[in-house]
């Protein structure tokens, strides 16, 4: 039996989370953009698979930053 590796727990992988739809709407309104204008991530990406993300979902990525302390990025999941 093989043990499954949890990539989200790796020290070099920043925190990823699926954004609830109400937060997606707030995000898009705040930046005055449409969903299709977000940077993309494929459903075949290891992290997207682990989060069980489907096309149309938005993933929030929170990274530690030496200059900003914390940097937040968003990705639209595509096929």
Structure characterization notes:
This protein has 79 residues and is of the alpha+beta class. 22% of the residues lie in helices and 32% in strands. A hairpin with a 3-residue loop joins strand 3 and strand 4. The longest helix has 11 residues, at 21-31. It has helices at residues 21-31, 46-51; strands spanning 15-18, 40-42, 58-65, 69-78. The chain has 2 helices and 4 strands. Strands 1-3-4-2 form a 4-stranded mixed sheet. The protein is globular, with a radius of gyration of 14 Å.
Features:
alpha+beta; globular; 4 strands; DNA-directed RNA polymerase activity; 22% helix; four-stranded mixed β-sheet; 79 residues
Spans with pLDDT under 50 lasting ≥5 residues?
Answer: none
Average of per-residue pLDDT values: 93
- Rg (C-alpha, Å): 14 Å
Q: What overall geometry do the principal axes of the alpha carbons give?
A: globular
Largest sheet: 4 strands, mixed
Secondary-structure element pattern, one letter each: EHEHEE
The tally of beta strands, per DSSP, is 4
Helix content bin: 10-25%
Measure the end-to-end span. Answer: 30 Å
Classify the secondary structure makeup into a structural class.
alpha+beta
- The proportion of strand residues reads 25-35%
Tally the helices: 2
User: Strand order of the main beta sheet, please?
Assistant: 1-3-4-2
EC number: 2.7.7.6
Subunit structure: Part of the RNA polymerase complex.
Domain RNA polymerase subunit H/Rpb5 C-terminal: 5-77
Pfam families: RNA_pol_Rpb5_C
């Amino acid at each position: 039996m093989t043990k499954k590796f949890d990539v989200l727990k790796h020290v070099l992988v920043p925190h990823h989370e699926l954004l609830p739809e109400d937060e997606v709407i707030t995000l898009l309104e705040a930046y005055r953009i449409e969903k299709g204008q977000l940077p993309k991530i494929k459903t075949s990406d290891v992290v997207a698979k682990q989060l069980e993300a489907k096309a149309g979902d938005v993933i929030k990525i929170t990274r530690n930053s030496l200059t900003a302390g914390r940097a937040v990025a968003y990705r639209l999941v595509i096929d």
